[in-house]
Amino acid sequence: MRSAFVAALMLCAATGLALAVAPRSARIPGLVALALASTGAVFAPVPSGWTDAVFLGCWIGVAANAATVHLRRGLRARWAVALSLNAGAWAGAVVALAGSRFELLEALPCTLALLATASIAGRRLPITLKVVSSWLIAVALLAAILPFVSVTPGYLPDHLE
Amino acid sequence: MDIERSAGDANAERMRRVQPARKRFPIRKTSLAMHPFRNTACRFRSTPTCALLGITILTFASPATAHMGTGLSGGFAYGFRHPFTGLDHLLAMVSVGLWGAFLGPPLIYVLPVVFPIAMVAGAVLGMLSAPLPPVEIGIALSVLMLGACIAFALKAPIWAASLVVGLFALFHGYAHGRELPSAADPFGYSAGFVFATGLLHVLGIGIGVLNARPSGRVATRGLGGFIAAFGIWFLYRAVGT
């Protein structure tokens, strides 16, 4: 399955997580950058042959944004805005190529939701942010690798059977 | 009309009889019927208890059967369910969180981060059918070793704990990858088992909250011994087959 919506959703979620660990001054510029870049990219003429590359860029973006949670010194404001800009561009491009434009409208609020949740959770239980980021990184790595795995081994019985 | 009127009179009579009883036993404003969640929360005031309760309910809740997966057999729901249906996976993943809680920061969050990433690497190896030592034995050993680490309250350095957990995660991921049906939605299935794995780690960390009390520490070490005993059983079965 290669759903543009899932890719954009995960990218938006990872961006929300990254903005939650960024300085407060970077949050609104980051959100604006994400919205502007995604809107620009969704209307941009992206060649259809770039689909694989755009998906790969999306998954790399998810892993990079989620990994910022593990930075010891936190994320700098400039980097937060730059990552949001990057995420917006990939999210818009992937929706433009493999989805419908309305899917972007459904994915973007996820950033806001995760930013709010992560900001609250991060104060009391910072471990939750790290666990969520590890899920996102793991799934993004897997999704990036899966297109290169052409053959799955088939329906094997469970190893306990 | 007469029948309706007589029924209305009977109701009015019944209300008159009930009314004095209500005056004697007035319904309190904070009754369970009016504030069910507030009253329930009163019994479980502490955040860790609430968290544990929530995780337990989530763990044992049966999935809704509508809109399962992503339209194909072996989608997200199947992947999510897999670690919960296999006791070996379940015990190993809970043990990772529990051992992390025993070791404290930074391993409390390093281990749950290392495990899913190494598991993904194992899943890809499984999908590629890469040769690996017998997976059943590796998984059984993971249950045994992690249980023993908790039972003996083993304090390992960061690199050693990460290496051990990462190695065992490869086996678990390999098993998931090998069992991935060819007609399945690989992304949904894999995302499902990664997500379930994370939840099981959180459950283990939640149980590890008990370590704050001396009696709780004994209980968690006992649980570790119990898990190790299961590991011996799994190993016996794996070697026997």
TrEMBL record, chain A:
Residues 1-20 form the signal peptide. Keywords: Membrane, Signal, Transmembrane, Transmembrane helix. It comes from the Bacteria. The chain crosses the membrane at residues 53-72, 79-98, 104-122, 134-156. This is GGDEF domain-containing protein.
